[in-house]
Design a protein that fits this description.
disordered N terminus; about 0% strand; 15 helices; mainly alpha; globular
């Protein structure tokens, strides 16, 4: 009996990935229709001439810089995972495994609504490298919480110097951004409460479910499914985070690396502006990029579709001017489409040597 439990959990994770692949296929079709609709809009709105003339004048050097920015984003994500396992001499994870895990997260997060397929796919990939389901969950849960916290911290750091700009430029509409920031703070606080107070949160969740069933708002089958989530997965999430957060110094280092990682992502609109020869302030673009990410992640569609288009036009429309349509296409290609395509071969990477990162570093130090 004791040996069968991990097997069931792995199979459940595999089922989650199969469901994720089905969602990916649907998302790919959906995004194809969105791309066609966007190009039709550019043609019918009379922007086709400005669109092509803007693309013709794009600086190739800055396009290369934008690609390098995303490469830096990806490599810093790999480094964040590496920090979590470098102190464990028994960890079977190698560099190629971590590169595959990060690529898997990019692929499934970008092609599933709200990025829900990313974490299950990454946990499954970690187990295929030799980690137990519990250890894989601990690593992934810790990484997830730090990433979510970093998004809130980055937004706060950018709002402090640019709060006046947002109020003057966007007026009352900026309240939407403030609400999104508040929602991120609530989300991170809720995650921390789940991790630190699992019994209390589970009891509160079960009380809420019983109340909803009594009022007839949920049926018995859904009540049973959600009860399982509340009663078991909350404790799994909490135990996973506590196991991965024993070394708080490494957590702070991971947070710093994640903030730098987000900086490269949020700087992409500024780099694209340079490619079109548009003057722009880097800090302002970082602040707008942070707000754009909060808006995009709040839209329950693959890749934050509709939120990405509307948010980009609203936040960066005055900066791009007539080149807005072309600027959006370049930004979306570098920030979303190309990473999804590039992640496909990277997901197949495997560490064949059997040496952990800790062992490799010790060998390197001995040789030096």
């Amino acid at each position: 009996m004791a040996q069968s439990k991990p097997k069931v959990q792995v199979q459940a994770t595999g089922a989650s990935k199969r469901e994720g692949m089905g969602s990916v296929r649907k998302s790919a079709v959906f995004l194809g229709f969105v791309a066609i609709a966007y190009m039709l809009y550019v043609v019918l709105s009379g922007q086709w001439g400005a669109f092509w003339s803007s693309l013709a004048g794009v600086s190739r050097t800055w396009i290369v810089v934008s690609l390098l920015c995303y490469v830096a984003y990806y490599l810093l994500g790999v480094l964040a995972y590496g920090i979590a396992v470098v102190g464990d001499p028994t960890s079977p994870l190698g560099l190629c495994d971590l590169m595959s895990v990060e690529a898997t997260g990019i692929f499934f997060s970008n092609l599933t609504p709200n990025g829900t397929g990313g974490a299950p796919a990454q946990i499954l990939r970690l187990t295929r490298s030799g980690l137990s389901v519990g250890s894989a969950g601990a690593l992934q849960y810790t990484r997830f919480i730090i990433y979510e916290a970093a998004e809130g911290v980055f937004a706060a750091l950018m709002l402090i110097p640019r709060l006046g700009y947002f109020v003057e430029t966007y007026g009352n509409v900026f309240l939407v951004g403030a609400l999104l920031f508040g929602a991120k703070v609530v989300e991170v606080t809720s995650l921390l409460l789940v991790c630190l107070l699992p019994k209390q949160v589970s009891a509160l969740g079960m009380w809420g479910l019983r109340l909803l069933r009594r009022w007839g708002l949920i049926k018995d089958d859904r009540y049973q499914r959600w009860s399982h989530t509340v009663s078991e997965q909350i404790f799994e999430f909490s135990n996973g985070f506590k196991a991965g957060a024993r070394n708080w110094r490494l957590m702070l280092l991971t947070l710093a690396v994640t903030l730098l990682q987000l900086g490269f992502q949020y700087a992409l609109p500024w780099v694209v502006l340079q490619a079109f020869g548009k003057p722009a302030d880097l800090v302002t673009c970082l602040a707008c990029g942070s707000m754009l990410e909060l808006l995009t992640s709040a839209i329950p569609l693959p890749g934050g579709t509709l939120g990405a288009e509307g948010g980009f036009a609203f936040l960066f429309g005055s900066m791009f001017g007539p080149a807005l349509s072309a600027g959006y296409v370049v930004w979306r290609f570098v920030e979303y489409i190309l990473p999804v395509l590039a992640a496909v071969p990277l997901m197949g990477l495997r560490t064949r040597s059997g040496l952990s990162i800790n062992a490799r570093l010790r060998r390197m130090r001995n040789r030096m």
